[in-house]
Design a protein that fits this description.
The chain is an alpha/beta fold. The protein is 33% helix and 24% strand. The protein folds into two domains: 147 residues, NAD(P)-binding Rossmann-like Domain (Rossmann fold); 185 residues, 2-Layer Sandwich (Dihydrodipicolinate Reductase, domain 2), CATH 3.30.360.
Length: 344
């Protein structure tokens, strides 16, 4: 076995890239070397790695040679991934990509380790593994134990997605608009299509011909790929004035009977899930409480009397963590356990 892996974090200066570096340090991922890689404009910047005081000098992606590196964690957007991920993969470096660029490629496994770890076996086809959309990741973690028990037929989900999902520019816009509204200054939208402060926007990503948005389409096709192609999914994805943490109201219809009590028992034991479900004031989790946590929180589990074998639940998770950075690092851990160390 190796003493550690050589890991490159691509997009290291962005929200998710920084979170990946934090989580690699927090989880004491076995590293022999770590590189912070980003675009030309960030080259030479210094960023912190963990609490140890270690600093990394940002390297230019255009000139970065992936030869001899074990894993590259990409979080720099789809266009950059399309350009540079195949180059890294061809150099023998396994890519874990956080963008939507490769998720629906049949030769690229789309992985949530608690849900479909075995699918990682297919990574060798292209030497690329995809990380799902943040909303999909937390939903399938919560639904997997219920699907195993009673077979899901249909999912109806409404999301309440924080502005950090739109990057630093989204967070800045919420902050500045909120302040400007209080002092009477202009609050013209730039990053979002409408005012986000004190408002909700039922529009994430671009519109498709059928009237859904690309974010909604991603939840549909990714859930089918990760969980089960037979499941019917309909989603409404909404941007809300929350800095970090995505919430979802999920209505599920099952083939077989399942009670709310049975669902709670399953969720209590499920990997990656934290059940917080007291039927009293404050007996549920909101985005503010989930920030910085690894878990996917489930609350408000109840039976849906409008369909046969129906349940409703509320799911909250830190979108920068389980929705992105944490899942990517967990994939890297899985890859190391199952594959890379065998070759070491």
């Amino acid at each position: 076995m190796m003493s550690g892996y050589r890991v490159a974090v691509v997009g290291a200066t962005g929200n998710v890239g920084r979170e990946i570096l934090n989580i690699l340090a927090e989880r004491q991922f076995p590293l022999s070397e770590v590189a912070a890689v980003a675009s030309a404009r960030s080259t030479g910047d210094i960023i912190d790695f963990g609490d140890s005081g270690q600093e990394l000098k940002v390297k230019n992606l255009e000139h970065f040679d992936f030869e001899g590196w074990d894993i590259a964690l990409f979080s720099a957007g789809g266009e950059i991934s399309k350009l540079h991920a195949p180059r890294a993969a061809a150099a023998g470096c396994t890519v874990i990509d956080n963008s939507s660029a490769f998720r629906m490629d049949p030769d690229v496994p789309l992985i949530v380790p608690e849900v479909n770890a075995d699918a990682i076996e297919g990574y060798r086809a292209k030497n690329i593994i995809a990380n799902p959309n943040c909303s999909t990741a937390q939903m399938v973690v919560a639904l997997k134990p219920l699907h195993d028990a009673a077979r899901i037929k249909r999912i109806v989900v409404a999301t309440y997605q924080s502005v950090s999902g739109a990057g630093k520019a989204g967070m800045d816009e919420l902050f500045e608009q909120s302040r400007n509204i209080f002092v009477g200054d202009s609050n013209t939208p730039v990053k979002f299509t409408k005012q986000i402060a004190f408002n909700v926007i039922p529009h994430i990503d671009s519109f498709l011909d059928d009237g859904s948005t690309k974010e909604e389409w991603k939840m549909v096709v990714e859930t089918k790929k990760i969980l089960d192609p037979k499941i019917k999914v309909t989603a409404t994805c909404v941007r809300v004035p929350v800095f970090v943490g995505h919430s979802e109201a999920i209505h599920v219809e099952f083939e077989n009977e399942i009670s709310a009590d049975e669902a709670r028992e399953l969720l209590r034991e499920a990997p990656g899930v934290m059940l917080v479900d007291k039927r009293e004031d404050g007996g549920y989790v909101t985005p503010v409480e989930c920030v910085g946590d690894y878990a996917t929180f489930v609350s408000r589990v109840r039976e849906d009397p409008t369909v046969d074998n129906g349940l409703a639940l509320w799911v909250v998770s830190d979108n920068l963590r389980k929705g992105a950075a944490l899942n990517a690092v967990q994939i890297a851990e899985l890859l190391g356990r199952r594959h890379l160390q065998k070759a070491a």
